[in-house]
Amino acid sequence: MDNQKDVNDIEKIENNTQDVNTCEQKTSFNIDKKLSELNPNLSKRQLKKVKKREKWLERKFELRLREREKARQKRAFARANNISLGPSRKALKRSTMAESSCKIGVTIDLSFGDLMIDKDIAKLTKQILRCYTLNRRAVAPMQFSLTSFGGKSKADMQKHNGYEHWDVKFHAEPYLNIYPKEKVIYLTSESENIITHLEHDYVYVIGGLVDHNSHKGLCHKLAVQAEIRHGRLPLDKFLRMKARKVLTVDHVFEILLRVSEGKTWQEAFLQVLPERKNAQLILPLGEKGTSDTYHKNTDVLHTNIYT
Q: Are residues 305 and 196 in contact, defined by beta-carbon separation less than 8 angstroms?
């Protein structure tokens, strides 16, 4: 009898599941039919994307509530265990580029939009978002800007509502139209010049190019053609790396930020570089030759370092 009851219960569950699935299929079919009627020119793939977007919008409010609750629990745990969660919202409002004591400029050159597919443009946008977040949470933010901001890069950035109000300077013009040529240093891993310290009141250019090595050496070539100073981070001086030394935009930005905050190069490298880079120190921390950082009062660029 018990076995027969179990069989009946299983059949009921299966029937209920089938009914739910049938209902969901009907609902999905009705949505697809309605979307097809409203947008007769959409392909099946496009309809699928629209339907996915609508489902996300329906769950958006619920997800926001979950995120807020998770953040509340995180703050409560931090207070109970005396853990710092970084600067408060009030402190962040006061921590702006205009009020910052750090005058090191960093701009991302977005003139490579036509060389990237949409997927890589989206990756670049995410990296820029992380650069902004890092700079926004810094006690002394660097002077952060985007140059050649237009085309695909701007179109993808417009997906993020309110970006226009960020504490970032957006320039449609190229960086050489914005900053004095003698104050510009293009960062490129192909450069033969090694940067030993960050210069006060200079602008460091990071190439906004996600190309998976398809255009190797392009940023260096452009810097040479424009006859501007160029240099590379001193990875070889302090680290032994098995992986390639080409870093992402946000990694380069964060390394510059940490050095501007007073960390040594190798401290910044170890903090920022991901484990997959398998970076190992050549010189132990604290040994001679490891304290080259940002010299706030240095206004002259050493001519024997950059060409």
A: yes
**Residues with Cβ < 8 Å from 160, sequence gap 6 or more?**
125, 129
Q: Which amino acid is at 19?
A: D
Per-residue pLDDT reduced to its tens digit, 181-191 = 999 999 998 89
Q: What is the pTM of this model?
A: 0.66
Q: What is the DSSP letter of 289?
A: T
Is 95 strand, coil or helix?
A: coil
With CA atoms as reference, report the closest residue to 279 among 239, 231, 232: 239
User: Cα 212–214–220 angle (5° rounding)?
Assistant: 100
Condensed to tens digits (0 to 9), the pLDDT of residues 1-31 reads 544 544 455 455 455 545 544 544 444 445 5
**Residue 210: CB partners within 8 Å, gap ≥ 6?**
116, 120, 121, 123, 124, 127, 248, 249
Burial of residue 199 (CB within 10 Å: 0-12, 13-18, 19+) is: buried
CA–CA gap between residue 267 and residue 254 (Å, rounded): 12
Written as six digits, the tokens of 246 are 């080409």
Asked if 118 contacts 152 with a C-beta cutoff of 8 angstroms, the reply is: yes
